[in-house]
Amino acid sequence: MTRLRGLLAVLFLSVSTLAHAQPAQTGTLSGVIKDSTGGVLPGVNVTATSDERGFSRTAVTDANGKYLFPSLPAGSYSVTLTLSGFESMRISANAVVSERTTTVSATLKAGGLSETIEVAGETPLVDMTNTSATTSVRKEEYEKIPLGRSYQTMLGRAPGVVGTGNANSSGALSSNNLFLMDGIDTTDPTTGTFGSNLNYEAIDTVSVSTNGVSAEYGRALGAVVNVVTKSGTNKFSGSAKYIATNDEWAAQNKTKSETTGASLSRVIFEKTNPVYSFTLGGPIMKDKVWFFGAYENAKNTSPQRQTVGPIPEDYQQTTTSSWWNVRLTAQLSRNHQVWVKYFESPTDGFVVDYWGAPGERAALTRQDQTADNWAGQWTGVLRPNWTMEASAGKYASILTVTTFQEGRGGSNAPHFSLADSKYYNGATFDGFTNRPRKQGNIATTYFTTLGGNSHSFKFGIDYQTVESGAEFKYPEGKLYLDTAYNQSTGAFVPQSRRDYETGASVSDGKTTAVYLRDKFEMGKRLFVEAGVRYEKQTGDSDLGTGTVDTSTFSPRLSASFDLSGDGKNLLVGNIGRFYQGIIQSFSDAFGGIPQQTNYKNMVWNGTTYVLQNEVKVGGANFPPNTDLDPLYLDEATIGVQRQFGGTMGAGVRYVHRSWGNLIDDTRTIDAAGNVARKVVNYEGAERSYDGVQFTFERRFSNNWSTQASYTWSKTRGNHFGDTFTSLGDYTNTNCRTTVDTSVGTNGVLPCSEVQDGANKYGAPAYDRPHNFKFSASYLKKVGKVNLVGGVLADAISKTTFSKTRTMNVLLPGTTLNASPTATYIYDELGSERIPGLAWTADLNFEATVTIKNTRQAGLRAEVFNVTDRQEKTAVNSTLYCNSASSATCTANLNTFGKATARGSFQAPRSLRLTAVLRF
Description:
Blueprint: H1 2-13, E1 26-35, E2 45-50, E3 56-60, E4 66-73, E5 75-82, E6 88-96, E7 101-103, E8 106-108, E9 116-120, E10 133-138, H2 139-142, H3 151-155, E11 161-162, E12 168-169, E13 178-181, E14 184-185, E15 203-211, E16 224-229, E17 237-246, E18 272-285, E19 289-301, E20 305-306, E21 314-315, E22 318-333, E23 336-344, E24 347-352, E25 365-383, E26 386-403, E27 415-417, E28 422-424, E29 430-450, E30 453-473, E31 478-485, E32 492-500, E33 505-522, E34 526-540, E35 546-562, E36 569-579, H4 584-588, E37 599-604, E38 609-615, E39 632-644, E40 648-660, E41 663-669, E42 675-681, E43 687-701, E44 704-717, E45 734-736, E46 748-750, H5 751-756, E47 770-782, E48 785-797, E49 800-801, E50 804-810, E51 817-825, E52 832-833, E53 837-852, E54 855-864, H6 887-895, E55 910-918
Parallel strand pairs: 1-7, 1-8, 6-9, 13-16, 27-31
Antiparallel strand pairs: 1-4, 2-3, 2-5, 5-6, 10-15, 11-12, 13-14, 15-16, 17-18, 17-55, 18-19, 19-22, 20-21, 22-23, 22-24, 23-25, 24-25, 25-26, 26-29, 27-28, 29-30, 30-33, 31-32, 32-37, 33-34, 34-35, 35-36, 36-39, 37-38, 39-40, 40-43, 41-42, 43-44, 44-47, 45-46, 45-50, 47-48, 48-53, 49-52, 50-51, ...
């Protein structure tokens, strides 16, 4: 125990914080042993042995014939059953999955001790003890299908999820997901989006939970994504890959602009982009200590792009990535395991167009980014019915930006030309972001029997701190507004210059959570999980001003009923409340050191720039509101799950979700044009989701696997922003358009109708009523040759869009335009939709030859969008008019709902080739 306490001390003294529940990478193995008459058998010796790492645990069945192995490290296990006077039995290849219970029950026949019966195990696809809607993609499956080389693409395989990466899950925003890597939160604390990349070859399993999530998880209303990295085994193994793509191997863009008819074909760039990838894992001490490491180096040069100034300039981006990951796992004793891990994922050399169509190369931004993460976890069985787990880690995402190309005359300050509305000479910003997250947790689980029913009580404490550090400044802290700018010479006709306040801004936040849940039986067929989660969140601006101070309770209840009595046909359901954490960008909005916001307005007087006024819109004029209630979600689901045999399952589930306490800012304007803002829980804000999910899966066995889902859903509301939207803005005045005078009365409407009117309610762009996903793979062995074929196909409703018109906000009581603008929607939000389904099919084929023992060498080819469908998936203009009453209206009507850019169509067919060596 002294050794154990020392380990725990290292884990917790290394960090100062904690957050969402960090799940142990362990599962439970249990069962009931009976004799041939159906009577239970107490006293059976049960041994669970890891097929990959050799260690074992033992247990004895109780008076009810039950045995239990809690907190088993995820993996494959063989279960051996022995009892004097009965035949022994060995059940092999039982998959223990993180956070699930694998049931291995058996019937022993009377007989001699010398004979041992071999039985094949099962994969737990239906679990009475865990009713969450969870999709898992394991290495045995994702390695055989054509998939983008990232865990973000695997998120997109889950039913109810729209998109990949920063996806929308069951009506939630793309900033509402929780991203865990080996249980450690790597969600960007500022944006709520994914905060890190990861070496693809280091991924073992990606699990995505979308509905019915346990009280162990908090602060996320979207998907809970847990990426588990590979660990070494008793066998030395590894791989070496050379992966190549080339723009010349892809089909040409065959689409045309829907307004001009001009071809959107691209200049094909003939260059092979290589990726070199290596892995190695194995034992340091057999049955006790193992290692795994992965390294990847990628260099990618994109095709030429072009600026859109008077003199178009070509530019290219070449990025370099060196991603590595190392993990050590140790079985300290039969009942105690620990692992530690570190990874880095730097990518340098991005060229980003933050301006949106800049005039020249010097206005582009160069961006380097990296993320690093260390983590450690201990799990232990203190007694046969008492387990404990503890984890800690630190994650940081760092972004460094500067100018892509030096400006003229030694100056990198950007210039905005009022003549053509384009930027020149300088990047959008010069600075950095640094967003560290420190975390740790401890939890304990106690198994007992009360009133003849089994109970599993779990209690946990989570704590974390986060920071949002940034310096967004214009190069040299200046932005020139010019009457005209000469791209050739850099000469300009001055109008004004803005001299911005600069300096780094660092806000911080803390979260403390306590949760308690009980999983228990109620009779032989009903299983219930009841839990509650308490969270305390605080946040401060960069000047230490309090911005967030909330306390929440999240009750959750789920249940499963065994319809057939064999644990394979379940009626499941859950109800619960979930709270979304307030992301750090909220605290950043009250920064006393504002970024690119406060400035001195210097006006050209014909000779020099002179101070005209100062613009101050920082924290002093925009006070926080610490009385806010955090955004919450109420969810209810009901469904049926069925497992067929050992490796096949299907299900259907109905999901209803409704949001409350949506946060927004309301803005008012006075006669002098001053804008006042207030942050509130806006009563008029709404959002809801209804969906039905059908799922089918066949885990890899007998050489093939399949995953398929179809989701029908409907998302509705008027609030689809993280915090601040246009709802409630400028309702004390009127809005006006001079372009379409048919709107309102001669183009004038109360801003309350523009901003809060009925037309603001409807379907967001990510509302996709029909969402079908399918993937499958098959392995065929022909002598020493292994042939693998895989397919991945998707079909989804296309995006919605709205008829819009930009309107000027008027100074109250006048017909004078103020600075703000508003967006008027003619019909209900999302009333327009691109017709049809967007569908694609990807294929892969791999052929490897067994060289010696398990060593394999071969080639793999993946074809994406194999049918080369280049359908329209987005529109480039939503401006509308009721009639062609002016030249502007005519132009708007001619471009409304049209696709004019290459990116508004599906990408053409492309090819990726891989040479692989496995050993």
